[in-house]
Amino acid sequence: MNLFKQFATDPRAEKEGIRFEIGVNSKGETIAFQIARAGGQNVRYLKAIEAKTKPYRMQIQAGTLDNELAARLMREVFAESVVIGWEGVEDESGKPLTYSPEAAATLFEKLPELYALLQEQAQNVALYRKDVLDSVAKN
């Protein structure tokens, strides 16, 4: 297989995100997240990590940063720089949730398995490969 077909990604998709559908909500509407790549051409992600961790650099280097704080910082980075938006997301009582980075970070704190799933997908380079996106667009 040609290396470019195997490894070339779509820089636009890495930055602007891909649609990732999870299921349906209580109204039968599709639940979908628009997620950019966590890394690659998504420089917002790298800049967000740098900005969020800068005040804690000494603690990180010393290995003394509190685990809960580190987890919160990474949820915030992900919500601010990887999640572009969502649709069909509801709160526990079925009320629609409007997307914002703050709402996303709170949702991920309450639903860590959702956060883990979206992290996994945002790091899955295959989802951002140019040939895969081209073949999906054709269908």
Characterization of the model:
With 139 residues, the protein is of the alpha+beta class. Helices cover 53% and strands 13% of the residues. It is built from 8 helices and 3 strands. It has a 3-stranded antiparallel beta sheet. Helix 3 runs antiparallel to helix 5, helix 5 packs across helix 6 and helix 6 crosses helix 7. The longest helix is centred in the middle third of the chain and has 15 residues. The chain is flat and about 50 Å long. The two termini are 22 Å apart. 21% of the residues are buried. The model has no long low-confidence stretch (mean pLDDT 92).
- By DSSP (H or I, 4+ residues per run), the number of helices equals 8
Tell me the helix content: 40-55%
In oligomeric terms, what are we looking at? single chain
Lateral strand order in the biggest sheet = 1-2-3
Q: pLDDT average, as an integer? A: 92
